[in-house]
């Protein structure tokens, strides 16, 4: 019970946790998960640093930037911390190639890391403080997501944006050294900024919800530091965040086992830049493929979720990333499922298009969520079949550090930074020993504007 | 039906309306309502220009401002357009002393006018374009509010913030000269930024929701201009704005009679800086008051809404603005109900406090919403009673232009600008003839930082 006899508020408990957490109490395995998440994050942002969606965000934000204190990853341009947080978050999540907390489908790192990195760069902070604040922010984000899942997302809320603003606020509040009451206020201010719609996911408006989660979370912490307050029950009150958004929040998921059980420890990383339910299809096709073999028919079986998400016409690269037919065809045709496999060029590749026409999607309710069975019929009449239930990157088969490094190298190459990849990987693995985040961040900037 | 056979989307119809509207088609009475709204807006922002909440917002935003293109009303400091929009919106709505669209309880002007004024100042646009864009933005804002009222507010959404971002986006899209498709996109991008909670209204977090509506609406228009798109049905789709927020939207209220029936024509202005349901109490007390008369008891009768909102302990100025007891007591003690009557000093005034103790609130279900009956028993045993059903400022008894001017002068005095008030009033009445908004805005800036 709180001092005035009430049961403690959710924000109050989280505020105390954020302010009081000690580095020594963070398990070594969780610290390593944080480093893995950041390695994956930087690579994702680098890979699309020259994407028009990133360039547009950068161009629109530049005139509203109070100085160039912070790096835009993979770019030569610099912005203030709010602008850099906005653009780097958009980049990190642009292709949905980032990390995933599977229970909530939150992509935890994209909205939380960028404002912390920008703040640390501007203020000359060290890597340990950033990693610690990041783990706390991501934990708050995932826990709030758990409290309102699965209804929240199903109702139309883009949960990474709506919960990301809390994660960013929590992380920034910690990095700024706010006390427990201020951390509580920052979360309450974040509640009044929580926004983002599933309806908008197939459009650039999705980027805006993501970028705002980062920059508005930073704003929440700065305003709390300057004395702005919020309602005590902004998160769970009768007219507060969770209920306005349609949920009776399960507050045990927010506060139960805080500091001992870590939701963020369940973070996962994508090996392929496509919808996560298609990853079993990719693994099956990679295993079945014989280069040069003539293929008569491909039958992909999955449960209703797979068919709902993936049985659709393929007109462009957005469709390709969520198409059963394209996924199977491109992997069987090319033997790989990297960014190029889901590009517009791949959609238009005649060999891939021809094979897409021979892919059939069928329902098998007996298969679990995330699983797929692929059956290949060759020109010679042979038939081979494989069922994958725990694809690479899932909780049951996490990507290894070496696999994350390989993914990073591929992304760095897309940014024209292959030559710097090993140095960058080393900087991130040793993040907590780095006293100079400003120096670190500059190693992820481009030397000059791409022409 | 649209070109591909679908019924037109809400955003599509609004986008066409915003882009195609012609100044000549705006009724003269509506243009005048726009001028009245802006006069009321500038006064409200001036009156609190030195409030700590405004100063905090300004101080936090200043380092994130890309130059000083725009005036902060009543201040010497200047910010970029996004920062100025944020701070001016907070100021205009700080005391809830601004305008009200009564059906939705939206305060229409605060989130819409500031980004337009800032953009116009930065780009050297004229007053007619600003007034036109403002009327279109406020119309879109009120219509979306009507489509989701009354459930939206009741569920916990601070409707001025959640709908204000659409109004700001619509107005800015028009002022930037976007085409119909871009205006549609701006509204869709606004949908992913719509936020703000009723739970947070008694705190500074309310200011953040308000300021964000303005700056994020501007961002939506700028991103749409730069090519960002949104989902076609971002407003009404199955996973879009209205449904995520809990409503089956009444789209007839969004698009019915567009350009002929103006929701914004129903805008009203507060004569008193207190909750609108208390205005009938104030008018009754002003009419009953005899200066110097000894008062034994005051009985205030109202319906359940009045009692729900106003029967509470009074500890500070926030409570005072929504207290039946303070309202009746201060008006009977002082004979006025301006900003000073709802200050902390008034709350602590022994004469007012003593009289508060003699006020009794009673239920009379027969009285309509917004009405009150006040009965005064004097020390000498006399009893007088008055019932007010249409208080000053309501739709039935709108404030006259002269009353709005008087309110403006009082606010300008609070900002130390009494000497400039007549010139400022003249500038606003002749707004549409002013070719130079940059020059105009500078007349509302303070000469130097208040010491």
UniProtKB/TrEMBL annotation, chains A, B:
MmgE/PrpD C-terminal domain span: 272-428
MmgE/PrpD N-terminal domain span: 14-251
GO molecular function: lyase activity
Ranges for region Disordered: 378-398
Pfam families for this protein: MmgE_PrpD_C (PF19305), MmgE_PrpD_N (PF03972)
Family note: Belongs to the PrpD family.
Name of the protein this chain belongs to: MmgE/PrpD family protein
Organism field: Teichococcus aestuarii
